[in-house]
Amino acid sequence: MCSRRALLYMPGDDWKKITKALTLDVDCICMDMEDGVALNQKSEARITIAKALLELDFGTSEKLLRINAIGSGLEQDDLQAILPYCPDGIVIPKIESLDQIQWGSEIIKSVELANDWPLNSIRMLVGIETAKGVLNLKEIVTHPRLDGILFGGEDFATSIGATRTDSSIELLYARQAIIMACAAYGLQAIDTLTIDFKDIERVRREAEFGAMLGFSGKQVIHPNQVAPVQAAFTPSDKSIAYAKSVVEVFESRQQEGRGAFELDGKMIDMPHLKKALRVLDRAKAAEEK
Ligand code: COA
Ligand code: MG
User: Fold this and answer.
1) Mind listing the pLDDT tens digit for each residue in 151-201?
2) Which ligand is located closest to the Cα atom of residue 61?
3) 269 belongs to the catalytic site
4) For the range 40-48, what are the long-range contacts, defined as Cβ-Cβ under 8 Å and sequence gap of 24 or more?
């Protein structure tokens, strides 16, 4: 699975922002057809995204697009307009059940078959942004086309009648529910936006908080948010060096027949080895990006 530390949205009808995104060395570029696009611009967004997929070189950035929510009446035409141009993946917002993922996956599969593309090669990420979505996570995370969940904190707060606060305490339960469901199925958990895009310290703080909770990345809406977010989800040199020493010492202690041992004054055993291997995996994925 590719690294998705920062997933940058831009309105799909905005050619200038799409081309700007190519200069940012961002892990994922997500061209939006949903809430970032005015109702009377939806078909313009389809045309612009198709042109971008056809003509632009996205380099190592993943090419994603977000369709309108299932039930909006726009979702089928969105998929059919864009899938022939072979995006890397589709984002479906406001998912509330496994059936909805199945519906999208069947349409993608028919296009994969018609074009002789490998089955499941077009990946899927889904937004969990409502109370029902969080409630049904247990079934939602089982779909084989799914790579990850995107948490939509603003919509979720509205859906449960919460007031947004600076501390975001009102989002903690949903954040942890998503992280846990993703961990159980080996999926990426991608945190909600920081809408206050002029406050770089804030996005840095919120990205570090998300990484600490267990998210693997964060959604962003402005070029200035890309670097701090990608940094927050990249293991530091210090944590890489420590992870390497855990792996090294663990292996030699195992050979001496010891499962638990001391390193720098702390007890180390199997969970710490697993954590260290994960840090090294993430560092490698970030480097390969
Ligand atoms: N992707 C790529 N480029 C972007 C961008 C984005 N999301 N947001 C801004 N830019 C570009 C601007 O075009 C501008 O480029 P330039 O310097 O070459 O002229 C530069 O970055 C600086 O932009 P700025 O003037 O600070 O912002 P803005 O007023 O143009 O746009 C927003 C502010 C919030 C409207 C804009 O960031 C945006 O549209 N974000 C995404 C919104 C979205 O997609 N929402 C739905 C998903 S949640
Ligand atoms: Mg939303």
Assistant:
1) 999 999 999 999 999 999 999 999 999 999 999 999 999 999 999 999 999
2) 1
3) yes
4) 41/11, 41/13, 42/68, 42/74, 42/78, 44/13, 45/11, 45/12, 45/13, 46/12, 46/77, 46/78, 46/81, 46/82, 48/12, 48/13, 48/14, 48/15, 48/18
pLDDT of residue 66: 98
Average pLDDT over the chain, rounded to an integer? 96
- Taking the CA of residue 10 as reference, the ligand 1 atom at the shortest distance is 44
Average confidence (pLDDT) over 234-255 = 93
Which ligand lies nearest the alpha carbon of 21? 1
Domain ranges of the chain: 6-232, 237-288
Pick the CATH number of 6-232 from 2.60.40.1120, 3.40.930.10, 3.20.20.60, 3.40.640.10: 3.20.20.60
Instruction: Return the residue whose CA atom lies nearest to atom 27 of ligand 1.
Output: 222
C-alpha dihedral (15, 20, 26, 28), degrees to nearest 10: 0
Question: 3-state DSSP call for residue 28?
Answer: strand
Q: For tokens 């081309």, what's the residue?
A: 19
Per-residue pLDDT reduced to its tens digit, 185-198: 999 999 999 999 99
